[in-house]
Amino acid sequence: MGNSGQRQNRHSGRRPPSTSTSENVRASETTAPATTAAALPQRKAASEHMTPKDIVISAAPAQVGLAQFLKDKLEAEKYTVYCNTELEAAATKRVAKALVDCKLFVFVTGSESAASSLAADAVALAYISNTPIVIAANDDRAGILANMIFGMKLALQKMEWHIFPADSMESTLPAFMAALKKGLSGEASGNDIPTEAAAAPTPTNRRQLYAHSTKESKLELVGDQGNFWERNFGGDEDVAWYKFQQAFLKEYETNISELFDDSQVSWLLDMLKNEVFEASQTEKVSKVKFIEVRGESEHKGQFWKVVSEIAAEKYSMNEVFNMESAVRLTAVENLGKFQTPAVVDALLKLLDDGDPNIRAIAAISLGRTGTKDKVVIQRLLVLLDDKDRICRQSACLSLGHIKAEEGVPKISHLWRNDFISTVREAAKTALQQIGGPDAERILRVTNILQEEIA
Q: What is the pTM of this model?
């Protein structure tokens, strides 16, 4: 792949399923040692260990001067820094590995990185992992945004940009360092870092995709000057979707036109209807659901701010998990650390991936989130029937880790009947972790039989 980092079609083709863990196992494999929950997702990473850094800097070759300037200044302040100035798939994968453990991401952007799908992958991973992002550039912000890939623009357009003129880079350094220290302190993260026009960080917590806080914001946006619902629908308790859509498009025409073309507007409306307001069956939006999504605050711009953040996170999720993403595997291996509703949803979708390795790692990651949601447990129970042994093994270990008592009957069946020894060992481990009367009875009976036959 060339330095341009371009991909002709982000959604064309699928990687052929791996055969490394297929059921075409030889008899000797049945005696292989069990794989633990901790070991599964680290098989590849173990040989590619990267010491965690405080800050990750990513830039295109054209911005190598600014990237090196920032790296030197940060290291002079005793921060540890990982710096990448290549737009190649292998380099982006290394950036992804560094990103999942860093404290802050500095994206040095320009016309080259703005048009790069590889740069978009890295930005999307930082965004969904809630890593604080600080943006640096040599060129005009508006000019870069005009040529930026849609998903990246959606994620970055509300954040603070620091423009470093080539002949006076030192002049911007104090504001940049202040924003960086604010991000490292936890005061702002991801798109919570304010824009140049904002006087305070945006209040929305991206870790709860469709549920939002009610703090006031001074963010100046077109529309929503008061109560969007009452202004458009009066005292109605619900409204037909087509009316809600018309009001939304009219109220936020300026905001929408700045970010979305016609096809992207269609994507936005479909997402709002089907996923946010869940109106695909009723063709209606209720006032109760609207307030749940918007939050109780009726502050100026609140509803549009919420919508744009939902759209940015959703699009970033798609960017990270599409089949050609350079950061896909790293994300799957590490998303269990983040424990967000959006992450859980993404991992659930990956349980249907054509590659058994991806399904297995997604299962382990779901276990690591610690969630005991009924949908998660049900999907892991289904995975116990997977034709690939590593998927059954991973499902056992995850169900054991979250102590899912509902899994005891199926897990005990695998323990007694699966023809792969590592699956049986994982099932036994899961039963021991789950505990409780049923699991203990099954383990006790089998232990008694083993003692009698010995």
A: 0.69
